[in-house]
Design goal:
alpha+beta, 6-stranded mixed β-sheet, 3 helices
């Protein structure tokens, strides 16, 4: 049991308002504020671009490692013009799941699913994959 239980609203805030808005706003420092220092981060490519396809899964450990990765990848996402929108969020305070979508500049959407673990009010494990 963690020392601090995270509510559904807090998890939404971490995911959308801090993490994804940071990414979409080209601010990796803001994005990683949602992540625990010892984050285990696993991301299977959702929106295919710049040679990144759904066969690509990146696995990273540590907030600074994720920040460095995002700093580089965010530049590519800005050129492509995609953004992220979190829909449904569920949590029991220690674990959570969410459904979201990547939205392209023409309005095309690609749904994805995520699973998180929470520690000290931050995301300590993050797993994302395309829905289909």
């Amino acid at each position: 049991m963690t020392s601090e239980s995270t509510t559904r609203e807090q998890l939404y805030h971490l995911l959308q308002l801090t993490y994804f808005n940071g990414i979409d706003g080209a601010n990796p420092d803001q994005a990683v504020e949602a992540l625990h220092e010892s984050i285990s981060w696993r991301h299977t490519q959702v929106w295919e671009h710049d040679g990144h396809d759904r066969s690509t899964t990146d696995t990273l450990v540590g907030r600074e490692t994720v920040r460095s990765f995002l700093a580089e990848r965010i530049e590519q996402m800005q050129v492509v013009g995609i953004r992220h929108k979190v829909g449904a969020v569920l949590t029991d305070g220690e674990y959570g799941a969410f459904r979201a979508e990547v939205i392209g500049p023409t309005g095309k959407t690609v749904p994805f699913l995520g699973w998180v673990e929470l520690k000290d009010g931050k995301i300590s494990s993050y797993i994302v994959m395309p829905e289909l």
